[in-house]
Amino acid sequence: RGEAPRGASRGAAASRRALAAPQGDYGGPLACLSHDCWVLEGVISPARVCARANQPALFIRVSLYVDWIHKVMRML
């Protein structure tokens, strides 16, 4: 809850025409191919109410939350 830690987000875009994430796509993945494996690097943040033209989507860096994710998964 609350704001993401400083440096936790990064903007990313697939192309100059597709800079913003569609409204309602919160939690969508940002995956990068690394050594022939897809790695989840981020998820789309709901920080913006809707997509804005010429602005990249805001992603939350997953690596900052790995410990929390593992803790929650152990509780399930």
Describe the structure.
This protein has one domain (9-75): Beta Barrel (Thrombin, subunit H). It starts with 8 loop residues before the first strand and ends with a helix. The protein is globular, with a radius of gyration of 14 Å. The protein has 76 residues and is α+β, with helices and mostly antiparallel strands. Strand 2 (29-34) and strand 3 form a beta hairpin. 13% of the residues lie in helices and 30% in strands. The protein has one helix at residues 66-75; strands spanning 9-12, 29-34, 37-44, 57-61. The longest helix has 10 residues, at 66-75. Strands 1-4-3-2 form a four-stranded antiparallel sheet, with no helix packed on it. Residues 1-74 form the Peptidase S1 domain. It comes from Eudromia elegans (Elegant crested-tinamou). Keywords: Disulfide bond. This is HGFL protein.
Largest sheet: 4 strands, antiparallel
- Give the overall shape: globular
Strand content: 25-35%
Structural class: alpha+beta
The whole-number mean of residue pLDDT values reads 73
Strand order of the largest sheet: 1-4-3-2
Number of domains: 1
Architecture, according to CATH? Beta Barrel
CATH topology: Thrombin, subunit H
Cα separation of the termini:
19 Å
N-to-C SSE series?
A: EEEEH
| Rg calc | 14 Å
Instruction: Enumerate how many helices there are, as a single number.
Output: 1
| Quaternary structure type | single chain
Q: Tell me the name of the CATH class.
A: Mainly Beta
Low-confidence sequence ranges: 1-5, 8-18
Estimate the helix proportion, in percent.
10-25%
Total count of strands: 4
The CATH homologous superfamily is termed: Trypsin-like serine proteases
GO molecular function: serine-type endopeptidase activity
Protein name: HGFL protein
Keywords: Disulfide bond
Domain Peptidase S1: 1-74
